[in-house]
Every structure is written in C-alpha cells, then in structure tokens.
Fold this sequence. Notes:
The chain is an alpha+beta fold. Helix content is 40%, strand content 19%. It has one domain (28-225): C8orf32 fold, CATH 3.10.620. It is globular.
Amino acid sequence: MIAMRLIRSLCLFAAPTLVAYDFSDNADYLAPASQWPAWHDTMQRASDEANVILACVENKDQCQRWLRPLHVIVDRSRALTHKQQLEIVNRYVNQHRHYRRDRRSPDTTPWGDEGVFSQWSTLLEFLQKGGDCEDYATAKYMILRLIGYSPDALRIVVVYDRKTREYHAVVAVHDEQGNTRLLDIDNRIYGRKPTAYRYIYAVNEDSIWDHSVASTLPKRRQRRIR
C-alpha cells in the first residue's frame, strides 16, 4: 500500500514536466491583452486586414499572387488531421527566409524586468516582409485561427533558451484530447517541454500570462516567495 502511494505521488509530481505547455492553470493569468499596447495595436492591425485575408481564403481569384499559397494552405488544411494541420502550417511559415533579428525592450510591459518583444507583425506584414521569431509565431497563430482553432486553444509563448541564451517565441496548441504541442521555428513540433526552454510569458488575442520564475516553482516555494 505504501509503495503504491509513493508511485502515485511520483506520477503526480512528474506529470507537469511531461506536458509541452499547461493550458489548465490560470494562476499565471496577468491581464487582458488590451493592457499591452504593442500587442493590442498588432491585433487591431490584424483586424483591419481581415476582409482581405478572408476574401482570399474563400476564393482564390480574390488573392493577390503572393497570397495564393495562403489560400491553398488553409483550404487543404480543413480536410487534414490535427497533426497534419500543425505540420503543414509550421512548415509553410518556416519556409519564409526573410528573418530579422529580434527586437526587444525591457520596459514595454508592466510585468518583471525580462526582455520582451516590443514590435509584432500581422500576417500580411509577415508574408510581405518577413520578421523575427515572434512574427513567425504570430503568423502561425493567425493561420491556425483561419483554419478554425479558437483563441482558447492557442497561445504565443515567449521562452528563454538556456542553450543559446536568447529569447524565442513558439506557438502552443491545445487539442480536444487534452494534448499540447509546441510549434517551433526549426520545423519541430514538441509534445514535451524542451529542457532548455524557460517560459517567460504568453499571449493570445484575449489575454496575457506572466510565467515568472516564481510561478514556475512548486506551490510550496511559491507561497514562501510571496
């Protein structure tokens, strides 16, 4: 009996480390997305582009030539499995070679002193001009929304990569079976959290989550720090 309890306790303790990203815990919720001006402005610009994008997605003849691949990706993805959708969107966005260096600012948000991305591109801006890692992540987020994923199932997660010692952005996707995947810029799709990544914060079009160092500690240590 004692052995079984120990095994059960170990499983419960280990489970959070196995998931790629935890959508279930609201403890890290910070604020509505509108509270971050740089991100809110990007969402407003994306809203202004919506008519152009939706017309293209629904009718290829309404697409400018450089937008036609987007129509094909969204149209074909609707008949694919969840896994195939993630793969095709990840590869489509990652094939864009117009990569720019990350643009970060230490004081553009009301939380912490971590470096945060101060500029974001919309989908049309990215497809025309390229961008840096958070723009790749934003483009994937927006295409998945076009395919039919809800905001509640998507987050752009900014991480600190301990190996490269740089900040980076990935897309977390949650499915109906409770699985979470991370779409990365090197075409990898992670089912578990990469050991080198430390989550800093996350956003979607509705909310902001602050994954500070304290919030990633075991609950007992969180209480001590606070």
